[in-house]
Structures are given as structure tokens and as C-alpha cells.
Amino acid sequence: MKKRDHIKKAFSRYADKDVIGQILNGSQELPPLETKQIDFAMVLVDDRNPNECSSIIYKAVGIISKYEGMVDSIVGPFILVLFGAPVPQPEARSKRKELVKALSEAIGEKASIVHGHSECLVGTLGGESRLSYTALIPGFKEILGRLANLDYGGVLEI
Q: What is the pTM of this model?
């Protein structure tokens, strides 16, 4: 297998094939943002005990990887998980629902979860010092409000 093909295969789970091609061809332009249907889950971990919070986050991230979710970000006790971006996932909706069930069973009363499906603008944002692939989820502030108002152990599908 050629080195170039090996790189494409290795990164195909984490980046769109067009982005990989641009990088391998030496392009420094960011690909344009695009609209995609994605599934997402937002997890808020009980942070009253910082040591316990960090172990719950580690456990949650392990579960997320089993269901092929992409951890978009972890900020304090908050985890944002995307399905279907950057690489399309035909089973995104069912994987998201299975993930939510698995997280509820594993960490139950130690986290709140809001999850759903939406048309989002996705792509790489930022500048030279910090680039990040992310999804701009419509109504993010309102969704965060719903997440913050859920009791730990609560699950809400929107």
C-alpha cells in the first residue's frame, strides 16, 4: 500500500475525504462550510466532586467511542458528541439512541443528556493558532438551557 493511500485510510474516519485530498496535495485553503444532517448528544456530568467528575468523563468517552460518536469538545463537565460529521454515518440516528441508552445505564444519575437530529453547518473554523472541526447547531443556546435545567439522570430528545 502506498504511503499516500495509507494516510487516506488512517484519517478517513476523522476527516472528510476531500479535506484529506486537499492536505495531501499541499492546499492550505480551508474547505468551505457545508450543510449536513447530523445527530448530536450533549452530556453534562455532575461536577460537584471534581475527581469523580473526571472519572465519569473518561468512562463516558470510552462508551462514546464504542458507538462511533465523534467527541467534538469537552469543556469542563460538558461533552458534545457528533454523529455523521465529518464522515457520513448511515446508522447515525440509531447509534445516537444506542449511545444515550448506554450512557444512561452506565452513568445514570451522574449526568444529564440532551440529544437530537438537526441540519447543521459543519466545517473547520478558527485561525492559524487554533482550528477546530465543529458543527454549528441551530438553537444551541436554548438546547444548553434545557440541558442545564435537567436533573442529573435526566434525558431529553429534541
A: 0.81
